[in-house]
């Protein structure tokens, strides 16, 4: 069996080495005890070998044996993605639907062997990248008679680097940091940093249309994909490497967002950047959330294309950037590998000033060429730390329910949409989680025609009732997002979690089109059942 | 019958009012006579009523009669698109395959009635926007038993303008100038100017993924489409208006480039711009084509996103911008509705200087806020006039064969690709059209990872042999583009002309996917037969 370099945690986002320590979990329990006014203590983490799962329902044929296993720990760690409903089930040792085997194909031939075997034997095949999905993207549905999880961790090389076009051909299983490490000596970077970056893969990003570092202009991985290769049960689906094309409906766009239902993404040519050495950043406070979001609109509509242009509402700014609870925080950042960002940030700063944003001239930090990051101090530095330090595991099972949902909406609809979300979701939150529940908003990405708002909620929940309470709030959120005119996801993907809501947002006939496409590419319907469409 | 405002010419791009006069045609004949060394004179343009076409094979039912006609002139003017092979057939009075009727639906209900009737009676339905296709996109295939051309000219209104999000909801049949006229009072513009702009429609742009004004960043209409509505035989396919989304494979991307095979596009929300008032432009000469294209690469890779960044090779620069035949001409332009473009053009100018480009400091024209266009004088002004003054009709049938083909390719492949095209196509050109044939290249759009080269060829041809000679050259061009790694079209679309070559460039299985999608949306297979896929 091929060995991945690090073992994934079965109960938190990331590796075993990312798991919070007992001390960290106790600290989290103390903090939550204070907030809730009752004493809570961290649940015991089961030893992986003590977790009970059903016997594998598969007999793996010899030709797959070299890279496919029914090992207990492997099956446990591939049962769940990274959503809190999953991590909570995991830490409690509930694993009713593990995959029957886990394959680690080392090349397309081996992957093809797995897909062929699954097709012939009607075994469900579940593509697995980094397992960081927060939308139930990698689970075995209860209705499956048998399933293999296909972990792409042994197809994780950078195959070619083209410094002239600034592009690289990479295997789908490569992790974010490994990709950046391979590009660094060439002075290049993808600079696509979803929050899952340390543990998620290029293939996962493409399959789920992840959102990355850039808050404006080129936001989704979509914009960085020059070509893709997807191995389907029907054959190899390889698009041509092109900087642009107008030839028919784009085949890459069929792959982007396909979430493993058509095939397994094996490779991609990605568009890269020169590493930034010129930077400028600014944090500004607004006493009015509305004026702050208007400032964001004005900046993005100038088409200066800042790398960072985000705003945190007063609750988000208080919880994660240490502000006073009344002010919103606008975070602005420019970067370039080639020229000073003094001029664009001055233009944007003037817009902020015109909209009533508060900052001192000294707050505009410009770095011309040292390569040092600006924007690591003060409130925006605090926010950055909160964003990076995901730490999904420490608070698990301590009686606090937290989750997020995110969308995109045009500017004309935005203020009403925000009010609608806060009213609908807020009232359900208070009903279910009580009056101390919080609902906060920030923009993760912004476009000239509208923002991508990201809502976080949190509140006390009786231990053991997390899923039921979460479900009520989540359904209210889905309903509010769809009835308000938004998209069910700007960058978290659809998965099994958002499928019913997504079905309401797509055009009549589109479900049938995707199902028809699936019948061509995956005639036996083995791939990732339950995601996007029914077969 | 609804009346369109202007009558289309049956033998030239545009309206009857755009047709070249007898004097202009005689002048063209004189010029071509000089070039060819033999006296040629313009062919006589037949009167439309004298053109012989077969009887309509359809009996239009009463409910369609109010907006559907079998009128002779209407059928004649809807037989062809705008490619020179078509215009030449037209001026010679050859109309073997006219549509049997032309419908001008005034709303979706009427359009639905046509599609229903066509579906029930197995009548081919050919969506028609401005008729400017240069890839045989609107013809009736000889194998069709009957066909209706569906002209969208009576669904051509701007329905809503959203100044906050900077977007407009427009009907698909609106022409470029009418759209811009409607937006101007709001201080807004789409600024999408394909060469066909005066006569082509928003629906046509979306169906064919047209390329527009912006040479970098947001080049295709794809980037400006916020949502689409397409009426399919299966029903109304309406996407949600969203500034961005990551929810499954994008349904808009199925519509973009669909060239009328799934349905008829009826509406779209389009992303708009503030009208530019700050401008900067520069024309620079390079004694080396290679160094000039390297300068273009360096500029586009800085991500300054100029609105204009084009380069003409020495032949193109001589023929259309009056240069000496040795120099290439780089054309650079920045524009903004909000801030001075002095700083970005200075940065780009320095790159040009570093790459050996020749210009005087005075050649950098900056206009800060008067709204006057720069870049209308000198060589770049001459080129602009040549680009706008299409004048497709004047040279018809005078013994000169001219055509263009265009593609996109990554930078690392570019120099070899260019050599490959010039060698393969050049040798065929000389063989077929003789040693005086010319082959020129320019970049119409450029990306950080590669350019979109546009080749023009021209040479003497025996009158009457145009099609046969053109076909040999065109097949060589298609073969060279595909074998060289390019796309068969960056923005001219696939149509019937490029279908065989396109089939070679798409992934295995993609043809089947599109056919499966067509079976869902157009179960009787009535829509635009012969385009993209076979049914």
What key attributes describe this structure?
homodimer, 535 residues, alpha+beta, 7-stranded antiparallel β-sheet, 5-stranded antiparallel β-sheet, 16 helices, 31% helix
Q: What's the tally of helices of chain A?
A: 16
Query: Roughly how many Å apart are the termini of chain A?
Result: 33 Å
What number is the mean pLDDT of chain A?
95
Tell me the total number of β-strands of chain A.
18
Overall 3D shape of chain A:
globular
Broad structural category of chain A: alpha+beta
Strand content of chain A: 15-25%
How much helical structure, as a percent, in the residues of chain A? 25-40%
Walkthrough of the structure:
2 copies of one chain form a homodimer. By secondary structure, chain A is an alpha+beta fold. Helices cover 31% and strands 19% of the residues of chain A. Chain A has 16 helices and 18 strands. Chain A has helices at 22-36, 62-65, 72-77, 84-91, 108-121, 176-183, 202-208, 252-255, 289-301, 314-321, 342-354, 378-388, 414-433, 466-483, 499-505, 510-521, and strands spanning 68-69, 101-103, 124-128, 147-151, 158-162, 167-171, 188-189, 225-232, 235-238, 264-271, 273-274, 278-286, 308-312, 328-336, 365-368, 400-406, 438-447, 450-460. In chain A, the strands form 4 sheets. Chain A has a 7-stranded antiparallel sheet, with helices on both faces. In chain A, strands 5-6-10-8-9 form a 5-stranded antiparallel sheet. The first copy, chain A, has a 4-stranded mixed sheet with strand order 1-2-4-3, with helices on one face. In chain A, a hairpin with a 2-residue loop joins strand 8 (225-232) and strand 9. In chain A, helix 13 (414-433) runs antiparallel to helix 14. The longest helix of chain A is centred in the last third of the chain and has 20 residues, at 414-433. The model of chain A has no long low-confidence stretch (mean pLDDT 95). At the A-B interface, strand 9, helix 8, strand 11, strand 18 and helix 16 of A face strand 9, helix 8, strand 11, strand 18 and helix 16 of B.
């Amino acid at each position: 069996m091929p060995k991945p370099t690090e073992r994934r945690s079965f109960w938190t986002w990331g590796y075993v080495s990312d798991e919070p320590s007992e001390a960290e979990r106790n600290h989290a329990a103390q903090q939550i005890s204070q907030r809730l006014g009752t004493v809570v203590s961290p649940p015991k983490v089961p030893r992986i070998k003590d977790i009970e799962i059903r016997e594998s329902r598969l007999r793996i044929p010899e030709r797959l044996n070299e890279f496919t296993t029914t090992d207990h720990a492997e099956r446990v760690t591939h049962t769940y993605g990274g959503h809190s409903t999953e991590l909570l089930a995991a830490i409690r040792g509930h694993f009713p639907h593990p995959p029957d085997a886990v394959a680690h194909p080392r090349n397309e031939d081996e992957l093809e062997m797995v897909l062929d075997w699954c097709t012939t034997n009607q075994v469900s095949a579940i593509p697995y990248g980094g397992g960081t999905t927060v939308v139930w993207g990698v689970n075995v549905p209860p209705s499956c008679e048998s399933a293999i999880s296909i972990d792409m961790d042994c197809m994780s090389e950078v195959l070619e680097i083209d410094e002239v076009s600034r592009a690289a051909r990479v295997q789908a299983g490569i992790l974010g940091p490994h990709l950046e490490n391979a590009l660094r000596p060439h002075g290049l970077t993808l600079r696509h940093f979803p929050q899952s970056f340390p543990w998620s893969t290029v293939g996962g990003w493409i399959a789920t249309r992840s959102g990355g570092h850039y808050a404006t202009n080129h936001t989704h991985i979509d914009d960085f994909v020059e070509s893709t290769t997807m191995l389907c049960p029907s054959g190899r689906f390889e698009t041509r490497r092109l900087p642009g094309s107008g030839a028919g409906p784009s085949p890459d766009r069929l792959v982007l967002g396909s979430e493993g239902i058509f095939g397994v993404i094996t490779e991609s040519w990605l568009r890269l950047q020169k590493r930034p050495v010129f930077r400028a950043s600014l944090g500004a406070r607004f006493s009015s959330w509305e004026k702050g979001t208007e400032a964001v609109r004005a900046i993005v509509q100038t088409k200066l294309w800042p790398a960072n242009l985000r705003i945190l509402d007063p609750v988000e700014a208080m919880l994660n950037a240490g502000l006073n609870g009344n002010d919103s925080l606008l975070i602005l950042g420019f970067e370039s590998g080639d020229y000073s960002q003094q001029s664009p940030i001055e233009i944007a700063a003037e817009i902020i000033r015109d909209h009533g944003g508060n900052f001192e001239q000294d707050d505009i930090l410009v770095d011309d060429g040292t390569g040092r990051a600006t924007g690591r101090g003060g409130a925006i530095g605090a926010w950055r730390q909160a964003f990076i330090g995901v730490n999904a595991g420490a608070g698990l099972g301590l009686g606090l329910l937290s989750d997020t949902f995110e969308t995109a909406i045009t500017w004309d609809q935005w203020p009403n949409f925000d009010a609608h979300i806060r009213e609908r979701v807020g009232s359900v939150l208070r009903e279910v989680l009580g009056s101390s529940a919080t609902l906060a908003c920030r923009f993760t990405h912004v476009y000239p025609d509208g923002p991508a708002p990201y809502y976080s909620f949190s509140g006390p929940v009786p231990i053991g009732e997390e899923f039921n309470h979460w479900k009520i709030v989540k359904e209210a959120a889905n309903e509010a997002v769809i009835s308000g005119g938004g998209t069910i996801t700007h960058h978290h993907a659809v998965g099994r979690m958002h499928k019913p809501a997504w079905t309401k947002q797509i055009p009549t006939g589109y479900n049938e089109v995707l199902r028809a496409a699936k019948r061509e590419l995956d005639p036996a319907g083995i791939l990732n059942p339950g995601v996007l469409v029914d077969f």
